Structures are given as C-alpha cells and as structure tokens.
Amino acid sequence: MAINNATANKAARAGRYLRQPTGYRAFIPAPLPPDPPLDLGGVLRDKLSAADYALGRLDGAVLTLPNPDLFVFMYVRKEAVLSSQIEGTQSSLQNLLAAEAQLFDPDTPKDVNEVANYVRAMNHGLNRLADLPFSVRLIREIHAQLMQGVRGGRLQPGELRTSQNWIGPAGCTLANATFVPPPPHEVPQALSDLERFLHDGGGLPPLVQVGLAHAQFETIHPFLDGNGRIGRLLIAFLLTEKRLLSKPVLYLSHYFRQRRSEYYERLQAVRDVGDWEGWLAFFLDGVIDVSQQATHTAAAILRMREDYRARITEHLGRAAANGQRVMDRLFDHPIVSVATVREWLGLTPAGANQIVSRLEGIGLLREITGYARNRRFRFEPYVRLFEETGEGAV
C-alpha cells in the first residue's frame, strides 16, 4: 500500500484532472517546485553539468565576436521564423529580412507579419527585462506585441483568457481533446504561483527552474492563441534574466520542431504521471544540442568576417576602407540597395554602385530581385550561415 501511495503521490505532483460542471475534465496544475521533490541525481546530474558547460562555452564564444548584439540581431530573426513555423506559418528567413528592408515581393507569404511581430515581441521583452523582472505583467505585454493585428489578433491580445481552450487534433472537442488546460478562473492563480516560483527558485539550479517554468506555462495555456510562441520566448528571457547567458542566444524551437512528437509526449507525461525528470532530461538535451550548434555558428561568423576582410583588402584597392565600412553595417542591415550604401558612405550614385558591384564580385553581396532597377542585395555569406544550419538552429 505504501508503494501504491508513493506512486499516486508522484503521479499527482504536477496537478490533477478535475471534472467541470459541464462534464469535461480539465487539468489543475500544482504549484512548483514539484512535490515529492525532483530526483536530480544520476543521469539528470550529468545532463545538467553538460548543459551548464555548453551554455558557458556559448556565452564565451558570443562575447568574442566584435559586436555580439549583431549576432543577436540575426539569431532573433532565425528563431522568429522557426517558432512561427511550428504554428503553421510559411515565411522564411529571407521573407522576413526582405520585409524588414521594405522589399515588397508579391510572392511573400501573408503571414510574414506574424513573424515580424515575434521579433517585436522578443525585443520588447528583452528591453523590459532591464527594469521589469519576470512577471505576469511582462507576459501579457509580450503577448500583446505578438498578436497585434495578425491572425488570432482578435483573440484578446495581452489578455488572459476568459473561456476554456483545449489542445488536440483538428476538429476535436472538449470531450475528446488530447489535453484540457485549467479553466479560466484558475489561470490567474496558476500564473501567480509560477511567478512566485521563478522569484524564489525553490532551491533548484537556475537551468532546472527554466525547464520547469516552460512546461508549467504550456500546461497553464493562459491565452486563447500564441501560447507556444510565448512559452518558447520565456526560455530565452529566463536564461538571460537568471544570468545563465549574457546575451539571448539560446532558442530551442529547432530542437522542439525536430522532435515534435516527443516534445508533446514529454509534456503530457508530466501531467499524467508526474514525470518531471523525463521532461527535464529532454529539455537539457536540447540545451546541450542547441548551445553547441550556436557556438559553432559564432566561430563560423568570426572566420567568415576575417575571410571577407582579407578579400576586400586584396580586391578593392583604394576602395577597401569603404568596403570594410559597408560590411560592418551589413551585420544589422543584411539586405541593402545601392541607395542605402550611398547614404552610408556619402558617395555619388556612381561611386556607390561601383562599391556594390565590387562587393558582389567577391561574393559578399548577392542581388536577389532580378530587377534592372530598384535592386536589392543580401549579405550572402552571413545569411547563408543561418540558413545552412538546417531548418534551423543556429
């Protein structure tokens, strides 16, 4: 009987299903940290150590870059594309960069605005973290930025839901949903408990706190739309706020997307049988994997930059100084026109056109419109580094 009680206690430590007045069963999450406590020994201890080491290496690699914020600029956009694609958008990194450069292509997917909103929401949250610690208020602000004026934007941007939602295949109902989050009257308290946990930490390692918080947020599902994207954003925000990274350069969307079935199964196992340890092992594997990829990309950026600095010096002669200035600006303006380069350098149209042509000749720029006029060029080796890391992860 004692064993059965222990098993029952562990199964219920994430919360319990309660039948609602209209007949469906909704999940009421238990406050964090889990009780009975997590077992952070054995395999989990080793994974946590490896994840901390991988994050440290990533932080060091990013800080060796001449301007780490420029790495963040592109990384944020890559994550925006991937996280939005999980929710069904079609826009690519190229579509987003082109839209930001005001390059209007009739073939651009209409959902590019959703991806641009993700960038805006991420930047808003990162800026606010400087003076506003993680809070329900911050989550609501980020959600308002994410959902403003796009598909789902009519579903109360920035407002906690006041009706029941559910998760499952298309066409399912409350009666046969895969998972039904807490009813709306339970949401404010569940979020308040999550906020309190993240402020005191429950004596757990910071990285474990982040992993628990993501799963708990997805279980609460506090909005009518955008919960997945907000939950993934929270990982980056919390890693930065808890000083596990000095820059927000760890995003798990690629990892979650590659292992989508396991991701959902691990979250559901937490709710059904209290398997927090299984979820954390999966989460920490993702941190290790994506940290290593991002570290390699940071090193590749350094190599690419030095390679093209040498090419500019070798091939542009007296124009080399202007060529270097253009390349430095391209890191946060990866799609440009001749007029943009003219403005940067203060040259005549002919002079700017010549610089662009010569940078195109050494492979630094590539024309992407096919037009004879109003041409646009992209910072080819840099953008390609982010595209070549698979459907994603940097």
UniProtKB/TrEMBL annotation:
One of its GO terms (molecular function) is ATP binding. ATP binds at residues 87, 221, 225-232, 263-264. Keywords: ATP-binding, Nucleotide-binding. The active site is at residue 221. The keyword Nucleotide-binding applies. Residues 134-285 form the Fido domain. It holds the Pfam family Fic. The keyword Oxidoreductase does not apply. This is Fic family protein.
